[in-house]
Every structure is written in structure tokens, then in C-alpha cells.
Amino acid sequence: MRVILASACLLGFSCRYKGDHCRCDRLLSLSEDHILIPVCPEQMGGLPTPRIPSERVRDRVLTREGKDVTENYQKGAETVLAIARLNHAEFAVLKANSPACGKGIIYDGTFTGAKKEGNGVAAELLLSHGIPVYTEEEDWPAEEKEKE
Question: What are the helix (H) ranges across 87-140?
Fold first, then answer.
């Protein structure tokens, strides 16, 4: 059994900034053969749900109103990394485009829906520590049935 970190919103937890979720049944189906550990870096960093939307602006994370919430995102990312290490997670499946969880493409900081190349704070930290990160929009290693 693989241990996989997963964005809690993808597992059906109502923890997104709007107070909703974006359940991904494809990800949930992995729970039949693997251990899924839900994480929400924003909540783990002390932010409320619902909350004002945030986006990465260079090396900072700012709310739509201009408040700097970078420390919350960093604290959440560090907590996610600690959970990954304690549980020997093989990889993570995180929410695409998110300022915390996005990998490869994130919202560009203009709050217009435009996107740019980059990673969310938690995804970036996991990747820098050798933990592979995927989004719900990609294929994952665990989708292939293990032949043992």
C-alpha cells in the first residue's frame, strides 16, 4: 500500500477558500488500495474557511485585498511536509492552480483568472524535498495496478 498525500478539497472536504470542495472521484478511488492522507495547507497555516482568495505575487502570497498571508502559507507548507515525512508519503496529489497546492501552473496574482508558470507554496516545498507532486489533472503512479 502506498501512502499518498491529497488535497483535502479533492477528497470532498469543504475547505476551499469559498467554503466548498472539488471532490475528485478518480482520486478517491485510490483509497481502495492505498492510504490517502488529507491535507489543506491554508487551514494548516491558520487561515479560516471561507477566506478571501489569495494568489502568489513573486515570492509573496497576497489576498485579493492586498493583505500579505505568506507566513500562513509557509507554515501550512511546513506542516504538510512534516506530515509527508512522518507518514513516508510516496507522492502528493494536490489541487491544480492553487497558490498553496498548484504545480506547474498557478494563478498569476492579478485575480483575473489568468495563469502563469509556477508552483504553489506547499507544492514547491514538497518538490524541493524530493516528494513528487501531481495535480488532479495529471496521471499518477498509483493509478497503475501494482503487479506483485
Answer: 121-128
Query: pLDDT (tens digit, 9 = 90+) per residue, 103-148?
Result: 999 999 999 999 999 999 999 999 999 999 999 999 988 665 443 3
Among candidate residues 98, 102, 80, 97, the one with its CA nearest the CA of residue 89: 80
In a domain, 24, yes or no: yes
Q: Does residue 131 contact residue 84 with C-beta atoms inside 8 Å?
A: yes
Rounded CA-CA distance 65/109 in Å is 11
Q: CA 130, CA 53: separation in Å to the nearest integer?
A: 29
Of residues 140, 61, 126, the one with CA closest to residue 93: 140
**Predicted TM-score of the model (pTM):** 0.93
State in Å, rounded, how far the first CA of the chain is from the last one: 11
- Say how many domains are in the chain: 1
Examine residue 110 and state whether it is found in any structural domain, yes or no.
no
